[in-house]
Design goal:
Number of strands: 3
Radius of gyration: 13 Å
Strand order of the largest sheet: 1-3-2
Largest sheet: 3 strands, antiparallel
Order of helices and strands: HEHHEEH
Number of helices: 4
Shape: globular
Distance between the termini: 21 Å
Strand content: 5-15%
Length: about 110
């Protein structure tokens, strides 16, 4: 289901954010919301060498995750030029199963809430 070795650090952080956001009923979420969540988590985490992620890193990670069976990318019908057509992302699997797997990831440390 979820192979830690095949995911980048940024993809794993995005998954952590999506799991917690789904638990608090804040998904689907835009990439900017997920990036903001990741930034907060990385700043608060102990022992993390990275404190923030770039927009491009988060978008690349979400696009790659959307190609898996873990994350669903939803594109709204309204694709106005003001950015309202941005995709939203949500977990495609049960968050509790993914949370258990993510807890075993040594690189994430205290990022998962």
């Amino acid at each position: 289901m979820y192979d830690l070795d095949s995911m980048t650090f940024t993809q794993r952080i995005a998954l952590c954010c999506l799991v917690d956001m789904a638990d608090s009923d804040r998904t689907p979420a835009h990439a900017a919301e997920i990036k903001s969540e990741a930034k907060q988590r990385l700043e608060d985490a102990e022992g993390q060498p990275v404190r923030s992620l770039s927009d491009a890193d988060v978008i690349r990670a979400l696009n790659a995750l959307a190609d898996t069976d873990l994350v669903d990318e939803r594109r709204p019908e309204d694709r106005s030029p003001v950015g309202k057509g941005r995709p939203q992302y949500a977990l495609e699997i049960e968050g509790s199963r993914l949370r258990e797997t993510l807890k075993d990831d040594d690189d994430l440390g205290s990022v998962l809430g």
